[in-house]
Amino acid sequence: MTETFFGNSLSAWTQALVAFVLTAFVLGLIVMFSRNQVKKQEKALILFRILSRVNWATLIAVALWAAAHFLTLPAELLQFLRVIFSSILALQVGFCVEELIKMVADKELDKVPEDELTKRSSIRGIAMGVRVLLWMILIIFVLESIPNLSIVNIITSLGLGGIAIGLAAQSFVGDLLSSLTIRLDKPFDVGDSITIGEFSGTVQKIGVKSTTLRNVSGEDLVISNSNLLANPLQNFSRMEERFHILSLPLALDTPVEKLDGLAAEIEETLNKIENVRFGRARFKSITPTSLEVEVAYTVTDPQFSVFVQVSHAVNLALLNLLQQNGIQPGSPLLNLTGLNQ
Is residue 281 within 8 Å of residue 294, measured between CB atoms? Predict the structure, then answer.
């Protein structure tokens, strides 16, 4: 067949038509099957739920794209079809990803009690922020497909205002992703007592852009989510117990026999104190002013108030033990000091 229509042979047109019909038919069956699965099952597979959102415009666009491979078309027409196809594809991807975002957000909301309004609003805010970011990316994708249109040139032409907007957007996106990371990894939760850098407090609110802490003196501390994850973070609320080491400085003239039996007496003394598990006691070192005895124990209750009470009781018990054995502290007189680990 040598007869041509619009620059293509009848054979080429026939192949394009077959490709169009077959592509549309197969995709249509897949979409219909996915929609039936979603109707039958309340919790259908994610793939079926996403495919069920594919619309007829996307089917036609993909079928036309498949048919165009068998035809020779003018460059202007190909560019026009490319823009149309990119736009339809971007819309379809947006709808499908929005469905995925909705599924993840609903799953997270199901885990949160109805009365925890702060956490629920935070999840909804994160979902909304991700949607905004998604459509911004898709819009840029469509604009880039338009001939003779450069997004870089447009942004550059905005000058300092564009740079400021870009930096602000970068900061917002960074905090948004950090908020999402906090929600997924859960390094802390509302009500946890944490330390981040030089700041400490109880978590009051986890927002889209920032997290609010309330420190021991009562004021609120607002820290951006990106800064929270950029620094080492300690979560004291998830401690199961507290390990503590202290040093007893004894006088240099302490008799060896008393020093030798002191470890066993310390163990016996600490075992009598509630919420204390004895770790070790040893003659650690000799300094120019004292003999250093190291004592280690574990407070079995993680609450800080309990730790304070226990350390007070331990220090009194050790001081009483030294006095009973006639052992003097090192010179110059040093307070009982500890290292909280």
Answer: yes
